[in-house]
Amino acid sequence: MTDKTETQAVEKAEEQAPAPKATNYNTVTLDTPLMRGKTEVTEIQFRKPNAGELRGVSLTDLLQMQTDALVTVIPRISLPSLTATEVRTMDVADLVQCGGEIISFLLPKRAKEQAE
Question: Bridge-partner residues for 29, per DSSP?
Fold first, then answer.
């Protein structure tokens, strides 16, 4: 599948998807917006992944924010749903922000409470 076809398929799926519940998502505002055709993506929302969405990814690699692990997971839990190609072209600072949001989902409630 070409990048253009992949992007069109993602855009069509997003149009048909129900609106997300804001309380279940963490939002990242990008320093360097992504271009998707003529559309500029300035914010990405992430929802907490379930175990199935982490398949094939080492939790250690994800906690260490290994690029390959992030490129695998971000398209599975992002809104708008990004492609792996889009994630690979992200500004490094934006990728780190996204990784931080994903890591926050992996911490138990008790650890989050102690951090506050």
Answer: 43
Q: pTM above the 0.90 mark?
A: no
* Distance from C-alpha of 101 to C-alpha of 6, rounded to nearest angstrom: 25
Question: Beta 78-79 vs 39-47: how paired, if at all?
Answer: antiparallel
Answer for the pair 115, 71: CB distance below 8 angstroms, yes or no.
Answer: no
At residue 61, φ and ψ (nearest 5 deg) are -60, -40
Q: Which residues contact 99 (CB under 8 A, 6 or more apart)?
A: 65, 70
The more confidently predicted of residues 22 and 47 is 47
Label residues 48-67 b or e (16+ Cβ within 10 Å = b): ebeeeebeebeeeebeeeee
| Residue-by-residue DSSP string for 54-102 | GTT--HHHHHTT-HHHHHHHHHHHEES---HHHHHTS-HHHHHHHHHHH
Residue range 62-80: mean pLDDT, rounded? 96
Q: Do 92 and 105 form a contact (C-beta atoms < 8 A)?
A: no
